[in-house]
Amino acid sequence: MQQETTQNIDAEEVQKFSSIASRWWDTSGEFKPLHEINPLRLNYIMDSADGLFEKKVIDVGCGGGILSESMAKAGANVTGIDASKEALQVAKLHGLESGIKVDYHYSTAEDFAQQHAEAFDVVTCLEMLEHVPQPEKVIEACSQLCKPGGLVFFSTLNKNIKAYLMAIVGAEYIMNIVPKGTHDFEKFIKPSELLRSAEKVGLKARSITGLHLNPLSNAYYLSDKNVDVNYIVCCEKLA
Q: Is the pTM of this model over 0.85?
């Protein structure tokens, strides 16, 4: 079992983010989009969960801790896990500077779920599924980590021509919003595929919304009018 779980890592993907980990908290650097969308993601999570105060939360693929810290600041007891030691080191150091407590661990979702089954009220796995070889395994692990009646949040990129043009051609090569090579279109996931995988492991979708960029104001916003490119799903763990 240990061998199976640890194989669900793309070493090139981990290295890609590890190599720029020192700039995770640079709000004008490569991770600028994450900083800009984080308030939207946090509000969506808090609204869906009726607040986070004193809830046990795990942030799967936490990276440098942007979302983890914001949820802890909102009153949650947050655990963050990631497969990049460099990113976790940055997260820990920033936590010391900010004074915001997050319990960080170097682990995959699958391995952590083996030891912490049904331990969390809320599980977040944002902008991560499109960076692993078998996203369905991560979805299953997130379900295992969640308490019955708890919530699991996923965000990723839809798989269609619009998503390719906007997330790769536009964002990486024309507007330079994110570094070239950040995304691989073959790893994008249709909402129907994600929800089908979620249902198989006891997760029922409660809501889905799209993340959009207004080209005139250059500001991000959430809208459920379409989920053509970036989208966020809130699922409930069935009892």
A: yes
The token pair that represents 12 in the structure block:
């090139």
CA distances from 170 to 211, 217, 227 (A): 15, 16, 17
Alpha carbons within 13 A on the beta-carbon side of 29: 9
What is the chain written as a DSSP string? Answer: -HHHHHTS--HHHHHHHHTTGGGTT-TTSTTHHHHHHHHHHHHHHHHHHT--TT-EEEEET-TTSHHHHHHHHTT-EEEEEES-HHHHHHHHHHHHHHT---EEEE--HHHHHHHSTT-EEEEEEES-GGGSS-HHHHHHHHHHHEEEEEEEEEEEE--SHHHIIIIIIIIIIIS-SS-TTS--GGG---HHHHHHHHHHTTEEEEEEEEEEEETTTTEEEEETT--SSEEEEEEEE--
Q: At residue 130, what is the residue type?
A: E
Residues 196-212 pLDDT 10s? 999 999 999 999 999 99
Give the C-alpha distances (Å, rounded to integers) separating 92 from 38, 80, 81: 19, 10, 11
pLDDT at residue 14 greater than cutoff 70: yes
